[in-house]
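Researcher: Let's walk through a ligand-bound prediction step by step. First, I give you the protein sequence. Second, the SMILES string for flavin-adenine dinucleotide. Third, you return the three-dimensional complex as structure tokens. Ready?
Model: Ready.
Researcher: Here are steps one and two:
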Amino acid sequence: MSDQFYDVIIVGAGAAGSYIAYELASLGHAVAVFEEKSASRLNVCCTGIISTECFQSLDLGTDGILTKVNSAKFFSPSGRYLRVQTENVQAYVVNRLLLDKAIASKAQSQGAQYFFSSPVIDIIPGKDSIQAETLCFGAREIFSARAVVLANGFRPKLPRKLGLGKIKSFLVGAQAEIEAENVDELEVYFGQKIAPGLFAWLVPTRVGTSTNKAYVGLLATSQAKLHLQKFLNNPFCQGRITSREVEIEQKAIPVGTLARSYGDRVLVIGDAAGQVKPTTGGGIYFGHLGARIAAEVLDEALSSDNLTAGQLSRYQKQWKAKMGKELSRGYWARWAYSKLSDRQIEGIFNALDSSGMAEALLNSGNFSFDWHSRLILAVLRRSSAYPLLKIRHLLFREASL
Ligand SMILES: Cc1cc2nc3c(=O)[nH]c(=O)nc-3n(C[C@H](O)[C@H](O)[C@H](O)COP(=O)(O)OP(=O)(O)OC[C@H]3O[C@@H](n4cnc5c(N)ncnc54)[C@H](O)[C@@H]3O)c2cc1C
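Model: Step three, the predicted complex:
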């Protein structure tokens, strides 16, 4: 048993875990972060696209920016595309490893203590404290604190063990970094044969140098790696990828939220709580918002020395008020999309293109890189094309939107 006693132990040094470590340490709390990976191998399978809103809120330097996004091409299953462009930068592609390291170093500069190569294998709640059982460089050790934050990504074991439930539904993402030619803006590919249940992408990460680089990836309901291997041989990619070898990584993303993201002396944030946009699989911003709300609630609870589940339930109320509707509408919209055939998806492209709706929506104030539900509802209200009527019907029947 370690002699050190912390205010808060955080499990996981991803974007969400390190951000809450930074906030709590800045408020003067004694914080320890346990991360199973070593400091030099912190990388995450992630494209690193974040909105300008998220980038500003993270308040980091510009070092990690790979490219800026103010245009995109959306491809239908048959290969026709809609191109949208805005005057202002909508999003940044950031180096995810540098992003996580930058947030961790901000937390460390405020006094947060980091334990790398130290997986937490169990959490043991007690009356006056809570314990984390860890394997610090392989040696079993127990650390105590007043509270624990689970920020350990989509790993159901610890939340389930603490009786907080389990997120049952998930998507699988697969991605590779490649050398590529003629990939100079974000490209998104729809079609159930390409990426069943969501979409594939090509994202430039380095343009205008001797070797242009890009991420190629997709999110699918299953077998993401296999679908990505097929996509690499698709006419959309052929002749554009110059890498000799392509190394594919994959990771699961939760779809849906944890039944309870709080307990006695415990909060759950980020992917672990299901704070991920179901329409895109993007979780950096919503996890960051979850971390901010959790820090505020936990600071109050630590100050009043009331760390009961009743007190900490405010966290769930507040984050659901901020993003709950967005997550549930996104959940159902993605579900309805997954029921469409490629012909029906093609029909949606026809409707959006022929009526000039895509352009109108972009300029209507309903478009936001992070908050999609207004855009989804606006599309459904404006069009009577059959596939959109089908989505509308499914959403009203299943989700009472
Ligand atoms: C292919 C792909 C592309 C994506 N692209 C984007 C994108 O462009 N934009 C976006 O916003 N999101 C994207 N995402 C989603 C994004 O990666 C996640 O939402 C985000 O990483 C969640 O952050 P987190 O801090 O909650 O969890 P994570 O980043 O998963 O961090 C959790 C950390 O906890 C550690 N850990 C786990 N268990 C333990 C344990 N028991 N003890 C100690 N440490 C532990 C892990 O090693 C990890 O470092 C993508 C996902 C995939 C799969």
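Researcher: And what stands out?
Model: The chain has a mean pLDDT of 91. The longest helix spans residues 309-338.
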